[in-house]
Design goal:
This protein has 484 residues and is an alpha+beta fold. The protein has 8 helices and 29 strands. The strands form 8 sheets. A 4-stranded antiparallel sheet has the order 4-29-28-27, with no helix packed on it. A 4-stranded antiparallel sheet has the order 5-6-7-8, with no helix packed on it.
């Protein structure tokens, strides 16, 4: 992932320079010949449908629906591209919507009945990835990954730093998007802290909520933070100056729930509810998450049910689709979604924490958000609001890793491609209270975890160079043998 981002950045920089057009044409011609030999002729889609380019260029245009909000970035390049965000809030959780995407064919839903009888009625088109390289054959990618297993890769140094500025439990901690050392955490004491790790400092503390803050989220440009509180308000903060920009009153929902038990879409520009953007569930909502395209919403409630909704990004309306009974009577405290579990796992999955001492992985089996149990992993979880997350980097290593808090004072890392007895990758010890929130930064160099005493631990992943040294030594010995 980091390689692709850096490559794209270099391409953009080089296009601005004055280059010899003849050399560029020769490069493109040679590149085309190599790709043709390796993959065969590829049809030019633009010649068949001239609107493809225009649709691709319109991905970041502002939607016409009333749920959109333009975010003015403070970066100097914000004039060229200014992402737009839509927001949805319900109960103690909410989510920033991703920009709308037109590439829906990148996800395969494993609907057993549909596959057996008829695949023509699927809402989302499936696509076979015949060129996906099996893990055991991806020698080049494994070389780039250091030829390390998950257990070797997810080793940590001693605790990097501990923040203790909060007086009560820290319920959520989240790193800023695409930033290595900036994160925010929210507490039951009604405040939000914005932190830096290099060096470890508390930039400022955001105060204004009169009750527990249950969740927070960064905008895509990291200039805004949104928080949801049990005081029945949503606040939007300036993450640079620390000021509160807007307060949205939410009289229908709160952490304790009410008779309506509503999920509601709000227009944060006006503070008003979206018509058709509300729906009822079976109990107070504890958590929300979207799929990668922002068109399917899942909610988890205190009765152990997950509801899936079809979300219209243009109008802000939601339509209830499926009810999934995950663990009857046990509250669901966290939901995270991912389109692929790893590079070989082509089916989208949900990661769910339930108050029945388990972390559960659900396989999404239909385009309307229906899911079934795939695996379950043991943790201590019966009283607190425990959260979990996927590890952000997806590589060709065998397996895929997730991280979760636990009430036994530990942070657990599991390989979700293995069964219960062999799934444990690492266990981090150091907290003196139940671990509630966890978060990775984008390059997996730092892991943050928070607990019910208000402590935020920063763990630094160990960079293991032994494997690379062994490979270099082997390569040098090979050269010496050839010379002799």
């Amino acid at each position: 992932t980091l390689y692709l981002k850096r490559r794209t950045q270099l391409l953009r920089e080089n296009t601005k320079k004055e280059l010899d057009l003849y050399i560029r044409k020769q490069y493109l011609k040679t590149r085309s010949q190599i790709l043709t030999v390796k993959y065969g002729n590829v049809p030019d889609l633009r010649s068949r449908d001239p609107s493809i380019r225009s649709r691709a260029e319109s991905l970041y245009e502002q939607p016409t629906g009333s749920v959109s909000l333009q975010i003015e970035s403070s970066s100097p390049n914000s004039a060229n591209r200014s992402p737009r965000h839509s927001r949805l809030h319900s109960a103690s959780s909410f989510s920033f919507l991703r920009p709308r995407s037109s590439s829906q064919g990148s996800i395969n839903y494993e609907d057993k009945n549909t596959i057996i009888h008829n695949t023509n009625n699927l809402i989302v088109a499936t696509q076979e990835f015949e060129n996906v390289v099996p893990t055991e054959d991806a020698k080049a990618s494994k070389k780039l990954a250091g030829n390390q297993s998950l257990e070797q890769y997810y080793q940590f140094e001693p605790v990097y730093h501990v923040f203790n500025q909060h007086l009560k439990a820290v319920k959520a901690v989240k790193f800023a998007n695409e930033e290595r050392d900036r994160l925010a955490c929210c507490s039951v004491d009604g405040s939000i802290s914005v932190l830096r790790l290099d060096p470890p400092t508390v930039q400022f503390v955001l105060k204004g909520h009169t009750n527990s803050i249950n969740d927070l989220s960064w905008s895509l440009t990291n200039d805004l933070i949104m928080s949801a509180s049990s005081d029945k308000t949503i606040r939007i903060w300036n993450s640079v100056g620390g000021s509160c920009l807007r307060i949205v009153n939410d009289y229908w929902s709160s952490e304790t729930g009410n008779s309506r038990w509503q999920i509601q879409v709000y227009n944060t520009s006006t503070g008003k509810r979206i018509k058709g953007g509300g729906n009822k569930v079976s109990g107070p909502v504890k958590c929300l998450t979207f799929d990668i395209n922002g068109k399917i919403l899942w909610s988890g409630d205190v009765k152990g049910h997950i509801y899936s909704f079809l979300f219209d990004t243009m109008t802000g309306k939601i339509i209830k689709s499926r009810k999934i009974i995950v663990c009857e009577g046990s509250p669901i405290t966290s939901i995270a979604s991912r389109s692929w579990s790893n590079r070989e796992g082509r089916n989208p999955v949900l990661l769910v924490n339930t108050m029945r001492n388990s972390l559960r992985l659900l396989r999404i089996i239909s385009p309307d958000g229906n899911a079934e149990l795939k695996n379950s992993y043991p943790i201590w979880h019966s009283k607190q609001d425990i959260k979990s997350t996927f590890c952000p980097i997806m590589s060709f290593r065998e397996g895929a890793c997730v991280v979760t808090g636990s009430e036994d004072l530990c942070v657990y890392l599991y390989n979700i491609e293995k069964k219960d007895e062999n799934a444990s990758v690492n266990i981090l010890h150091g907290h003196s209270a139940p671990v509630l929130g966890v978060s990775w930064n984008y390059d997996e160099s730092y892991l943050a975890s928070s607990d019910s005493l208000g402590m935020v631990f920063i763990w630094k992943r160990k960079i293991n160079c032994d494997t690379n040294k062994d490979d270099d030594l082997h390569f040098e010995n090979k050269i010496e043998d050839n010379d002799s």
